[in-house]
Structure formats: C-alpha cells, structure tokens
UniProtKB/TrEMBL annotation:
Entry annotated with the keyword Lyase: yes
Pfam families documented for this protein: Amidohydro_2
Superkingdom per UniProt: Bacteria
Protein name: Amidohydrolase family protein
Annotated Amidohydrolase-related domain residues: 11-321
Organism: Leucobacter albus
Sorted UniProt keywords: Lyase
InterPro entries, sorted: ACMSD, Amidohydro-rel, Metal_Hydrolase
Length: 326
C-alpha cells in the first residue's frame, strides 16, 4: 500500500492475533473455549484478551500513527509437540484462521506459519502458499523443537523462500531448557537465546551464504545475536571445530538480515545498528503482549528524525518489495 500522497506506509512488523477457530478445530489439539471467548488449555486462557480482538489492533495502529501491521500467530499456538499428521491439520487451521481474522482490514497483513519441527510438512505448506497472495510472508518458530535450520531436510525450504522473495519472520519458541522454568526465564532469557540458536545455524551453517536473497526478520532486536556476532566471527577466524569453512564474514551475512527494534534500552538499538545496519532496522511492538512496547518508536527516539522515518517506512517498504533494493 502506497498512500495517495506518495508516502510509504509506517509498518509494525511484529504483532500477533489469535486465529479464528471452530470448536471442532480446537478439539484437534485438546483446546477449549474459555467463557470470555479466549481459547484455553486445561482451563487456562491462552494470551491476553486483546489477542482475539482485531479491532483493538487497528485501534493501536491508529493511536501510534501506523498504517499497517504484519500479523503472526502467537507462540501459544505453535504447538511444536504435535506429530506430523496432527500438525498438518492444526497448521492449516491456524493459517486459515489468521487470514480470516486479518480480513477485517487490508491494514492487517498475515504471515503464514510454517512448522519447522516437521521439515517435509513445512516445505509442502510453502508450496501451497506460493500460489497465494493472501499473506505478506511467512512466520516460523526459532528454536524450541524446530529442526536444525542448517540441516539437509530444510535445504529445499530455503531455496523456495529465497525464490519467493517474501520475508520469513522468526519468532522464538519456548526454550527446552528446564532450568528456565523459574522466574519467567523461559521468556526473559530463553526467547533471546532461541533466536540466537536459530540465527547461529543460519550463519555458521552456511544457509545465509548459500541463499543471499533470503529475507529474514528477527524480533526482540535480534535477541542475543548482536552481542555474539563478533564471537561467531572469531570462531570462523580461528577455525573452531564444527564451523563451516570458507564462510563469508558474519557482518556481511547479518547485513542482509532484518530486525525489529523491540528492546528496552536505546543502547541495544545502537549495537543492532552496528551489527545489522541502519537499512535493516524495523518497528516492532509484540502487540498485545505486556513484555512488548506500547509505542514501537520508543527505542529509536534517540535517533535522528530521518533515520526514524527510514525505520518506520523506507526499510519495511524495501523488505516488502514496495521499492527496489538499494
């Protein structure tokens, strides 16, 4: 969408909605309907009430002077525990349900979810989605139970996504580390680390080097990636065991990866700028979750006005191919 005035839309690339699902679809995975309308597991509602209210997402966009949102399924609906047959039915249901939820407005642009714990199914779903223009791109879980992203089982997926050109948003799944069950650490520490695991596989496993046209979006300001990128480069430079030989510089690889600026310290944005580059920064709020931001521009308030506009408008436009790559 380019406005009649010629201005590019301001986009939040990291928002969530629950899919529209029937009672029968919920039963597929043992979920029920809570009295307040939310879906529930063992009587515990999944996510905040606003997750089920697309009109509230549109209200948020208006309040923050944003034109569009990329909308992904929230982690409670990933269901990485399902076997491949159950996952096939579930993922198709949640993708159709998210598209239905986003049909309330063309400003809500859904991302089709891919279950990377089942590589063959994920590839099948990509092939099904390639003929569709209903979604702005793709979403998948980073880490958790996902298959290794540099494994041979996913090589076809990366080729298909690179040729397609639409972006893949990687959102962390719940860490399998039992030590993180206390203190909400599965989110506060596990989420940034799971993003790091996924990106580490893409960088050190040669996926990004082999597929330079692949468009990846990271959330939470790249998780731990900005802090460990230089260490990864040191691992390459010193030929550490298991590191693929002949890789391009880490900075070159990460310079093609996009990340939102969802962090709670401006200094983290500054580090992300040095690692990913100003051209790769995007707005992201994690709406409607409390760990996110009420205003996704808060972390970049210290940047100059021209760069803030690039982050809000020009960078997502290039990502979504509204304008050519520079």
């Amino acid at each position: 969408m380019i406005h009649l005035s010629g201005t590019l839309p301001a986009v939040d690339v990291h928002t969530h909605l629950a899919p529209l699902l029937s009672g029968e679809q919920l039963k597929l995975v043992g979920l029920t309907q809570h009295p307040d309308g939310r879906y529930a597991a063992a009587a515990a509602p999944l996510g905040p009430p606003a997750l089920y209210r697309e009109r509230e997402l549109l209200g948020y966009l208006d309040a923050q002077q944003l034109d569009e949102a990329l909308v992904a399924i929230a982690p409670p609906f990933f269901r990485q525990d399902l076997d491949v047959e159950a996952s096939a039915s579930w993922v198709r249901a949640i993708n159709d349900g998210l598209i239905a939820r986003c049909s309330a407005s063309e400003r809500l642009r859904p991302l089709r979810y891919l279950p990377l714990e089942h590589p063959a199914l994920a590839i099948e779903l990509v092939r099904e989605g390639l003929a569709s223009d209903e979604c702005a791109g793709w979403a998948a879980a980073a880490g958790g139970a996902a298959a290794p992203l540099d494994g041979p089982e996913l090589s076809e997926l990366w080729s298909l996504l690179a040729a397609d050109g639409r972006p893949l948003l990687l959102h962390p799944a719940e860490s399998p580390d039992p030590r993180l069950r206390a203190h909400y650490l599965h989110n506060l520490l596990g989420n940034p680390v799971e993003t790091g695991v996924a990106v580490g596989e893409l960088v050190l496993g040669g996926v990004l080097a082999q597929h330079p046209m692949l468009r990846i979006i990271l959330v939470h300001c790249g998780g731990v990636v900005p802090s460990v990128a230089a260490r990864w480069q040191r691992g390459i430079d010193t030929n550490r065991p298991g590191v693929t030989a002949g890789l391009p510089p880490v900075a070159e690889q990460l310079g093609r990866v996009f990340t939102d600026c969802l962090t709670h310290a401006a200094e983290n944005v500054d580090l992300a700028r040095t690692v990913f580059g100003d051209s790769q920064l995007l707005l992201g709020s994690d709406w409607p979750f409390p760990i996110g931001l009420a205003d996704p521009r808060t972390p970049i308030a210290h940047l100059d006005a021209e760069l803030r506009e690039r982050v809000a408008r020009a960078n997502p436009a290039r990502l979504l191919s509204l304008v050519p790559a520079s």
